[in-house]
Amino acid sequence: MKRCSLLIFILCISLPGRAQKNTYQNPVSDSLFIADPFVLFADSLYYLYGTSAGDGFKYWTSRDLVHWEEKDYAYRRTEKSWGQGSFWAPEVINYNGHYYMVYSARGKTMYGEGLRLCLARSDHPGGPFSDIKAPWFDLGFSCIDGHIFIDSDQKPYLYYEKVGSVGEHWKQEGYLWGMIMGAELAPDLSGPVQEPKFCMFVTQDWEGPKSLKARSVEGMTVFKHDSLYYMTYSANHYADPNYGVGYATCRDPLGMWIKYPGNPVLARDPNLGVSGPGHNSIIWSPDQEECFIIYHSHADPDQPSGRRVLNLDRITFTRDGTLSVQGPTRTPQPMPSGTH
Q: Is 15 within a domain?
């Protein structure tokens, strides 16, 4: 009887497709539904934020990028908040002794109701974050998906998506559009110190230049590897199965961004049941040896919608600087290096 039980145990842990203790499998959780994920590493802990609530942003923590524990709200709307809805895509940075959250929300402006970026601050990565600039600035147009990049010389830059629409897109008689803009920020993050510069728009076929849903590039993340600046970004409508990730490079944070001709580097895979992988952030393993892309995908690939799940895959670089995503995956993958 003991011999039989041992055999059953060995068979169970050896079944293909079953994540074991030293592996993980996407999506990383069956109960964590989040969009536009952003991960920050602070005080030996990973903090996960994203589009997750109608009145603010919840957060999760992890020590290994795989097992996440739900916490409370990092930011929550109050009666005095400028933003009253559409709380999207929060990102948090550690800068000059404080934690800053940039997010987009909808509120009243001198031009009418619209989407704007807001800036909140806290002394702890889990918050609570309080608005210090809401809206952060107002240039007379809607903008979402704010991303702050701190260069090696500690100079801060802001990237965001300028958005609009053509025709009655909700009737499929027009489309949404979005382009990525960038600007240097004041050292105290009070606002841009120059007119925002154009970074990129829809040009590649996979981005949907003829789409009647959305002709937009969005969800950007900027980082530096060796001497090259990288910008990962997403394109297409968030509920489109072809929503994916591409990247561009340049030699200066506000220089001419050149898209990788082999884009997208992360795309749908119907054979794996992966639909709409996108709006990513970039994070390194605890020992800083491995680079990972954190992204969402549609929870139901047969009915793509705003309900999305969390994914984690590796990124590698060739000697010439080419970025490759080892995914999307749906089979067991080794746990991030440096985790226990």
A: no
Place of tokens 């701190």: 150
pLDDT higher than threshold 50 for residue 153:
yes
CATH code for the domain of 270 = 2.115.10.20
DSSP 8-state code for residue 14: H
| pLDDT tens for each residue of 88-145 | 999 999 999 999 999 999 999 988 899 999 999 999 999 999 999 999 999 999 999 9
- What percent of the chain shows pLDDT beyond 90? 89
Instruction: Output the pTM of the full model.
Output: 0.92
Sign of CA dihedral 300, 305, 311, 315: positive
Residue 20, pLDDT above cutoff 70: no
Burial of 145-170, coded b for 16+ CB within 10 Å and e otherwise, reads: bbbbbeeeeeebbbbbbbbeeeeebe
Rg of the chain taking only CA atoms, in angstroms:
20
Give the chain's end-to-end CA distance (angstroms, integer): 34
- Six token digits for residue 57: 């942003």
* Cα–Cα distance, 90 to 50 (Å, whole number): 6
Q: Per the structure block, which two tokens stand in for 336?
A: 């991030």
Q: Which structural domain, as residue segments, surrounds residue 174?
A: 21-334
Q: What is the pLDDT of residues 194-244, one digit of tens each?
A: 999 999 999 999 999 999 999 999 999 999 999 999 999 999 999 999 999
Residues found in the chain: 340
Half-sphere exposure of 3 (CA within 13 A, CB side): 0
Q: What angle do CA 180, 182, 188 make, to 5 degrees?
A: 140
